């Protein structure tokens, strides 16, 4: 017997950092472990001839490739090639009948590629925000002027201004005017309507600066050409490269210049830790580099974690504060001016009101103005409701508003809370106008808007997912123009529903306030799961045309099976017409691809509405190659866990001897669990090796206890875990078609554990392992056996095997 101890172990100098143990060693999200495997390849393809994804001849599919084609450059004798590529800086080169591929970022595609790493539509003049919130003429003049003075006169360390105020006081409108009148060099307007990714803030700002300033653009081009991973690095790393280096170290610009950067709605950024990290980097920049020409204006609600940051005395020297209060005289006067002007506009726009000398009455106006206080969100919602196009009766709508005020907060609710409480009283009134038969569809649309996944869809696609016709969709939202921005029918293929103000989704999420749903998140998740599965199941997975090696590259989940016309069975409730550029064929393909991606992402997050055999089956049958976001480890866990009995019943689990598997094809993370009966002192043949640096977690089952761990193995990994094993069954290099090669060493890599598994393969060639195989021919393997030394302890390995076993034996 070849034992582990008889193998020669060279000393290893690999340094790994031990992470804190997760709740379950096997249920760590797959994306945590793919980076090293994915350094050189974004796809995981099991023992197939080529990793190259094939584009189908049908042009419908061409837009779904995420890889930019390489740019071929031809030169003629005597021609000089300029660039940063393979011949950068060379001249007087002569080539004949030669073609060279330059993979460097060129001037033609640099900005286009850079744009893909930004928050699309976040700039102050973006069409995605049109029309943007603006201050009503004659309002907020003092605040705007103070911001302008700060920009032009700030000096030293105090180059950040914090504009803070409660929801709905008009912070975004103020900063919009400031951005237009200065104008801003770069701006990021966060929003719950799809602009929330805080990890892209600095790339977004850098991109906007690069569009305006040639020296900065050249600096970025050189840096990113040198290190393309810069666009995916951490926020501190990006901040150093995008701001500290060019503005401080390189002195690209004079210290006397001013560069205005506006970040609005910081509290709407999707992670509170990211919010504080952004503030920390900006404030440190201001204090450490007082000569910097960059001026920052950051606006947010007074959320506790943001307020506590600014309350820190170490930050005090970096900023000045502008607080927009709800109950201030200035705010109330501005809101009253807005209400008078807008109500006057409504009066003159309706023939039945023009002859009225006093509409609304002074008493009615006072009641509305008192309810609004200094809260523009309330005032603007009231105006949109009274002027709602579906009703066409401002008098009746005004009465409804007054009724809501009467049923709203009583006199004991005072100060800054009163206007928000009045808004809470108005929102139910607006929802109550939706007829019961339309509310079913209205609810679906509201839930979809509340789900972050819907951000990727336009209104037409959203309605096709929900099986709503155009008429049903517009009927469902016709009563909600006061709270929702609804796309015009001819723009429905390019725009989606948006909230006018974040206070409305906040209201819906809070059951105590809205009575809308006990769990908006669960209800929205369940709705998306039903829609995605319905669409996916309308596309056959076992047709002969789907078994080819062709595939559609989409997102980072992998290549999907496909062939011309394979999505034709997807039913469209809202088909396209001459108004839209997207064809029905393209729309069906988009619906299918997005639905499969949704199943991947939600299954990977262990959403309870996706944890079923239907979703599992879709993931196992729809791909020709797996991408970095495919939940491969969660699939493995469920295949041998919750879904085991069903898979066995269907005949999908096979048993094969170890000799039919290729050890060198084992790839990715290997899960080990070793357990012994409680109360029995078992002597394992190989207990935990203290030199192993990867995670170890204690396991306590009903009658068993032990430990489990994860280690990483590459098909031709570092350390040569097969050396010096000389066995013809185990070549030292993986098959040439294996796409699981990596030149890096992951922090879960372990030479000791890899060799222990290799020895077990050699010593036990006839031992049976359980195998499940997906449509990419990736094998998910479970190997269990009793410890040969104590005949008590149980060992269990779960691993991935690139390719099918040589022989399958049915269970």
What does this structure look like?
The protein has an eight-stranded antiparallel beta sheet with strand order 16-17-15-20-19-18-14-21, covered by helices on one side. Strands 5-6-7-4-8 form a five-stranded parallel beta sheet, with helices on both faces. The chain has 26 helices and 21 strands. The longest helix is centred in the middle third of the chain and has 21 residues, at 329-349. Strand 11 and strand 12 form a beta hairpin. It has five domains: 4-42 and 649-810, no CATH class; 71-106, no CATH class; 117-323, 3-Layer(aba) Sandwich (Rossmann fold), CATH 3.40.50; 329-404, no CATH class; 434-627, no CATH class. The chain has 811 residues and is an alpha+beta fold. Helix 13 packs parallel to helix 15 and helix 21 (520-537) packs across helix 22.
Question: In summary, what is this structure?
Answer:
This protein folds into 5 domains: 4-42 and 649-810, no CATH class; 71-106, no CATH class; 117-323, P-loop containing nucleotide triphosphate hydrolases (Rossmann fold), CATH 3.40.50.300; 329-404, no CATH class; 434-627, no CATH class.
């Amino acid at each position: 017997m070849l034992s582990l101890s008889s193998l020669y172990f060279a000393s290893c100098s690999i340094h790994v950092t031990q992470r804190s143990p997760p709740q379950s060693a096997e249920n760590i999200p797959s994306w945590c472990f793919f980076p090293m495997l994915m350094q050189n390849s974004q796809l995981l393809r099991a023992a197939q001839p080529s990793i190259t994804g094939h584009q189908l001849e049908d042009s419908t599919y061409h837009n779904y490739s995420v890889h930019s084609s390489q740019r071929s450059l031809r030169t003629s004798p005597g021609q000089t090639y300029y660039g940063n590529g393979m011949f950068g800086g060379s001249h007087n080169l002569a080539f004949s009948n030669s073609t060279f591929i330059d993979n460097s970022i060129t001037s033609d595609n640099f900005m286009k590629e850079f744009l893909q790493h930004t928050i699309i539509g976040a700039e102050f003049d973006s069409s995605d925000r049109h029309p943007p919130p603006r201050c009503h003429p004659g309002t907020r003049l003092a605040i705007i002027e103070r911001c302008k003075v700060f920009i032009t006169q700030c000096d030293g360390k105090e180059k950040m201004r914090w504009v803070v105020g409660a929801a709905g006081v008009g912070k975004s409108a103020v900063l919009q005017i400031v951005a237009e009148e200065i104008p801003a060099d770069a701006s990021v307007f966060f929003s719950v309507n799809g602009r929330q990714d805080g990890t892209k803030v600095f790339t977004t700002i850098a991109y906007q600066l690069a569009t305006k300033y040639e020296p900065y653009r050249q600096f970025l081009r050189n840096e990113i050409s040198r290190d393309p991973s810069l666009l995916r690095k951490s926020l501190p790393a990006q901040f150093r490269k995008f701001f500290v280096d060019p503005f401080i170290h390189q002195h690209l610009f004079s210290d006397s210049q001013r560069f205005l950067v506006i970040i609005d709605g910081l509290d709407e950024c999707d992670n509170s830790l990211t919010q504080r990290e952004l503030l920390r980097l900006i404030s440190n920049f201001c204090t450490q580099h007082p000569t910097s020409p960059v001026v920052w204006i950051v606006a947010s609600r007074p959320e506790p974690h943001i307020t506590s940051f600014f309350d820190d005395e170490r930050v005090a020297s970096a900023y000045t504060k502008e607080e927009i209060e709800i109950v201030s005289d200035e705010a109330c006067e501005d809101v009253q001016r807005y209400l008078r002007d807008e109500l006057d506009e409504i009066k003159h726009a309706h023939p039945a009101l023009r002859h009225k000398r006093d509409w609304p009455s002074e008493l009615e106006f006072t009641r509305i103005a008192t309810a609004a206080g200094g809260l523009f969100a309330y005032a603007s919602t009231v105006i949109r409701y009274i002027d709602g196009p579906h009703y066409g009766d401002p008098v009746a709508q005004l009465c409804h508003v007054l009724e809501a005020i009467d049923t709203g907060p009583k006199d004991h609710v005072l100060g800054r809370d009163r206007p928000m409480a009045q808004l809470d009283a108005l929102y139910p009134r607006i929802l109550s106008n939706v007829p019961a038969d339309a509310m079913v569809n209205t609810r679906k649309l509201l839930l979809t808007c509340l789900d972050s996944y819907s951000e990727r869809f336009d209104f037409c696609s959203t309605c096709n997912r929900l099986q709503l016709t155009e008429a049903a969709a517009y009927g469902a939202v016709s009563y909600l123009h006061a709270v929702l921005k609804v796309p015009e029918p001819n723009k429905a293929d390019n725009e989606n529903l948006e909230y006018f103000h974040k206070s409305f989704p906040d209201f819906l999420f809070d059951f105590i306030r809205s009575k809308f749903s006990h769990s908006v998140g669960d209800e929205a998740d369940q709705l998306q799961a039903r829609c995605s599965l319905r669409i996916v199941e309308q596309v056959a997975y076992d047709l002969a045309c789907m078994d080819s090696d062709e595939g559609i590259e989409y997102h980072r989940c992998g290549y999907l099976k496909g062939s011309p016309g394979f999505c034709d069975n997807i039913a469209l409730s809202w088909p396209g017409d001459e108004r839209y550029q997207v064809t029905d064929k393209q729309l069906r393909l988009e619906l299918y691809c997005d639905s499969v991606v949704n199943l991947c992402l939600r299954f990977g997050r262990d959403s309870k509405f996706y944890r079923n055999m239907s979703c599992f089956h879709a993931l196992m049958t729809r791909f020709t190659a797996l991408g970095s976001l495919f939940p491969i480890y969660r699939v493995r866990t469920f295949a041998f866990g919750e879904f085991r009995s069903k898979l066995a019943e269907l005949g999908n689990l096979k048993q094969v001897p170890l000799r039919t598997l290729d050890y060198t094809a084992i790839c990715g993370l290997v899960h080990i669990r070793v357990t012994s009966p409680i109360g029995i002192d078992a002597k394992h043949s190989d207990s935990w090796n203290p030199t192993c640096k990867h995670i170890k977690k204690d396991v306590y089952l009903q009658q068993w206890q032990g430990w489990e761990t994860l280690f990483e193995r590459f098909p031709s990994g570092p350390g040569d875990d097969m050396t010096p094993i000389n066995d013809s069954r185990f070549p030292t290099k993986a098959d040439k078609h294996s796409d699981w090669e990596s030149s890096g060493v992951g922090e879960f890599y372990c030479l000791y554990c890899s060799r222990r598994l290799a020895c077990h393969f050699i010593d036990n060639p006839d031992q049976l392992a359980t195998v499940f195989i997906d449509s990419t021919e990736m094998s998910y393997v479970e190997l269990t056996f009793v410890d040969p030394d104590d005949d008590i302890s149980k060992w269990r390995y779960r691993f991935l095997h690139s390719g099918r076993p040589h022989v399958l034996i049915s269970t």
